[in-house]
Amino acid sequence: MKKALALIVAVLFLFSLTSITLAAVEKPAEKPKPAEKPAEKPKVTQVTGTVKAVDAVAKTITVTKKVKGKDVDTVVVTDEKTKITMGKEKKALADVKVGDKVTVKYEVKEGKNIAKSVDIKPAPKKVEPKKAEPAKPAEPAKPAKPAEPAKK
Questions:
Q1: Which residue among 21, 38, 98, 103 is least packed, with the fewest CB closer than 10 Å?
Q2: By residue range, what is the domain housing residue 69?
């Protein structure tokens, strides 16, 4: 009985040593972690509102939109990659006018809003109400013709 117990303990001991050795051999070497994560792709944000100001020298557009009853200004910087369109027509920064409705898609890079695209919807033209023409005086009614006697 003692021999059987000793044999079982020896087999279990050998089994545990071999499994530890195999686990250490099969484990792949860990890859060194990069020091810095790759830069995340900037998130594209969209703002739709009215053009408040255009600065051709600084190449900026200030867009105002209402949020909870308050005006919120967003300043975006345009560059040579910015696509400015009105419908399907390509336009330039000079074509953006104060009062135009625009939809601007931009990314935040280094603390600046860099415009990717600007879609212009022209400001509604002010329609001047037509001046009412003075009413013409009514013409006096013509006297009625006397009734003719009935023929028999």
A1: 38
A2: 44-121
